[in-house]
Amino acid sequence: MVLTRTREGKGSMKQLDLLNWTPPCQVVAFPLAKRMGKVRRVADILVEKRGAAATSYWKQTISTIASQMQRAGLDRDVINEELRSFHDAVQRELWRRAGHGQRPRGNAA
Question: What is the torsional sign of CA 31, 33, 34, 38?
Fold first, then answer.
């Protein structure tokens, strides 16, 4: 609230628009990292490919997903965060498949 004075010397309180501002938000209905079928399918293909072929497939996959998200109207920051989360999910899946997802002597903590 801001106190303003009129010519007559009377004060009045006025709400600034800045205080009513809320940042825009975007809801990602199907977060990439939670789409386990897609995560596993990409991991399947990456396990089979090596070197430049794996890199090329990964770049193509990420580019396609980013384009789809842009066409859907998502903000660039949201897209980047989704792609980072997807990358992490695929890496976790690859790590798990390599046998690193299990604790020695079972999973009990």
Answer: positive
Q: Could you tell me if 96 and 40 are in contact, meaning their C-beta atoms sit under 8 angstroms apart?
A: no
Q: Is there a domain that residue 9 lies in?
A: no
Give me the number of domains the chain comprises. 1
- The pTM score is 0.68
Measure CA of the first residue to CA of the last residue in the chain; give whole Å.
55
* Relative orientation angle of helices 36-48 and 76-95, to the nearest 10 degrees: 60
Q: Is 36 domain-assigned?
A: yes
Taking 3-state DSSP, the helix, strand and coil percentages for the chain, each rounded to the nearest 5, stand at: 60, 5, 30
* 15-65 per-position pLDDT tens digit: 566 666 666 666 766 889 999 999 999 999 999 999 999 999 999 999 999
Q: Which two tokens stand for residue 43?
A: 């991991």
The CA distance from 3 to 26, in Å, is 35
